[in-house]
Amino acid sequence: MFGSIAPRYDFITRILSYGMDHRWKRLAVARATLPENALVLDLAAGTGHFSKLVRERLPNARSIAVDITEPMLHLARAQGLQDAVCGDATSLPFSDATFDSVLIGYGLRNFPNLKTALAEIARVTRPGGSLVSLDFFLPPNQIFRELYLRYLYLQGAVWGIVLHRNPRTYSYIAVSLRGFVSIQELSSLLKCTGYAQIETREFIFGGIALHWATKQPK
To answer: Which is nearest to 139 in space by CA: 213, 209, 210, 211?
Structure first.
């Protein structure tokens, strides 16, 4: 599915984030703990949006984009991102304590085993390094939650038909949310995985959230 939507991925991300995706990601990078020559993992990178923002903030930094979908990485390379690796978040092809920071955009929700992926992310992050995640969540207010899910489902179905002649192409987002953890549960999982100083910022009444966390030394 992600291979088929790759050419439209950036467009649909802007649509479903109400045009605010770029601002949220820029905030994520601005508040990440990054040295001037940082080595960053852009995980579930898609077309490499986070990597581009890292380079804008720190010209001497290096960002490696990892995604399981090769067509996404092909587009990232075409836009100038040469460090792009096809890989699985639950079995990353990197040594322990490699990266100063790991940035994830709308990825954790799609990993088949969240705990395994978080353990892998912690493994490849240096002590004192940071994890930053941006993702969809279920709003805590039950009434708004149902409206939000219906909106995402219908909006996704409409754009799926318009762009791909398949209503299920983007409506999966609403379906995936029903089985995903809450904002608070993700914070707890990060603590259990070895992270501290966890901060969150919510948008759209809790329908979108950023997490910042720092890996503790063993």
So the answer is: 209
Residue 128 and residue 65 in contact, taking contact as beta carbons nearer than 8 Å: no
Tokens at residue 47, please? 């077309």
Mean pLDDT by 10 residues, the chain (218 residues): 82 84 95 93 95 94 95 91 93 97 96 96 97 96 93 90 87 88 97 96 95 93
Specify the pLDDT at position 7: 83
For strands 195-203 and 84-86, give the pairing: unpaired
Give whole-number Cα distances, 151 to 37, 157, 158, 176, in Å: 42, 10, 10, 14
d(CA 95, CA 169): 35
